[in-house]
Amino acid sequence: MEITDVRVERIEVPLDRPLGVSRDRSMSARGAAFVVVETDDGITGIGEGVGPESYIIERIVEEKYAPLLIGEDPLDIERHWAAMVTDTVYKDRKGQGLSAASGVDIALWDVAGKHHGVPVYRLLGGPMEGSLKPYASDLFWQDPATMAERADSYVDRGFAGVKTHLGRGIDADEERVAAMRDAIGPDTALMVDMNCGYDRPEARRVGRMLEDYGVYWYEEPMTPSDVDGLAALREELSVPIASGENEYTKWGFHDLFEADAVDYAMPDVMRCGGITEAKKICALAETYNTVCTPHCFTTGVGLAATMHVMAASPACEWLEFDPTEFEVYEPLFETPPGIEDGRIALPEEPGLGVHLDEDVIGEYRV
Fold it and tell me: What distance in Å separates the CA atoms of residue 220 and residue 218, rounded to the nearest whole number?
C-alpha cells in the first residue's frame, strides 16, 4: 500500500454567539484544517491539525509534508513522524509545524485502523474501558444568570462536570463562579479555565477565591511560558492546576512534569504531535503519577482522535466534550456519540470512525 495524495480541506463556521474568554477576547468563528491521506488501496485517512490559522496548516502539509509522504507506506507511522518532526536540520519544536504534523499523523492512524479492520484504540492497546466520562465544555463569558442556567442544563443532560471560561477580574469571576456553583450544586465538578489570562499575583488571588467554591481544577491561569510560575502557584494553592493545551511533544510535557507544574496534563492530540505523540505523553504522565485529561475543543475528527488515545491509556480521565449543536461535531461520526449514564461509548468502526460529510463540509469550506 502506498500514499498517493496528501491534502487539506479547510472550513470556517460562523458563530451565532461569540465565545468570550479572558481579557475581553472572543471568537466569532471556529475554523478547522482536515488532513486527507489517500492510498492506492482505496483507503482514505482523515486527520485534523489545530492551528489556529488553518491556512498555515494547509501550506505546511501540502508543501512540506506531502512530498515526504507520497509514494511511502502509510503504515510506517513512526518513521513518518520522525521525517516530519525530528529528522530535519531546522526543527519545529513547537507551533504550527507540530500542529500540521499532528493532522497528518492522525490521518495515518485512521488509514491503519481501516487497513486492519479495527478501531484505532485497538492498535494502541486499548480499550481500558468501553466508554469515557465527559464534561461539558461550553460555558463561555456571559452574564452570571445565563451562565448558571446553561451549567444547570448540562447537568440535567447527564454531565458530571462542566467547564467555564473566565479571567476578567476577580470580582467578575467570583460573581459567575458563585452563580454556577449555586446552580449545579456541590457534587458536580466545576472546572475553571482562564485561557492564560492572569499574571502571577492576580492568578494567586483568583486561585484562593476558587478554593472557597470547591473548584475541581484551575486551568491555564497564566502564560504557558511561565512553567516556574505555574509550579509555584500549584505549591501555594489547594485547587489543582491543569495545563498543557499550548504545549508540544513529550519533551515539552517532560519539562512540565519535572517542574511539578500540573495536576492535570492537557495535551491536545491535534497540536502536541498527533496520536503517536499523545500516546507517549500519556505514558509519561503515568510515570509521574499525573492525570491526563486531553484538551479537545474542535470538530468530530479531533474528538474521535482524542477518544481513541484516551481509551488506550490508564492515565486518562475526563473527556472534554462540546455540548452545543456544532455543525461539524457529531455529524462527522459514523455513529454520533451520545451520553448514557454519564458516559460516552467508544467508536466501534474501523479507523477513527469518522467521515467528511460533503454536505456539511461543503457548506463551510474555505
Answer: 7
Residue 222 CA: distances (Å) to CA of 97, 103, 225: 24, 27, 8
Res 89 pLDDT > 90: no
Can you tell me the distance from the alpha carbon of 147 to that of 136, in angstroms, rounded to the nearest whole number?
13
Instruction: Report yes or no: 15 and 29 within 8 Å, Cβ to Cβ.
Output: yes
Q: Helix H segments across the chain?
A: 54-60, 66-69, 77-85, 96-116, 120-123, 144-156, 170-184, 200-211, 227-236, 249-258, 274-287, 300-311, 358-364
Which of 80, 165, 295, 308 is flagged as catalytic? Answer: 295
The full length of the chain comes to: 366
Cα 65 to Cα 85, 104, 254: the distances in Å are: 10, 8, 26
Q: What is the distance between the alpha carbons of residues 337 and 344, in angstroms, rounded to a whole number?
A: 6
- For residue 83, what is its C-alpha cell? 521525517
Compute the distance between CA of residue 352 and CA of residue 329 in angstroms, rounded to an integer. Answer: 14
Is there a catalytic annotation at residue 295? yes
Q: What are phi and psi of 68, to 5 degrees?
A: -75, -25
**Which of 49, 166, 165 is closest to 96 using CA atoms?**
49
| pTM (global) more than 0.90 | yes
Q: Which amino acid is at 200?
A: R
Cα–Cα separations (whole angstroms), residue 198 to 137, 168, 171, 176, 201: 21, 9, 14, 17, 8
Q: β-strand 161-165 against 189-193: which pairing, if any? A: parallel
Structure confidence at residue 23 as a pLDDT band (50, 70, 90): very high
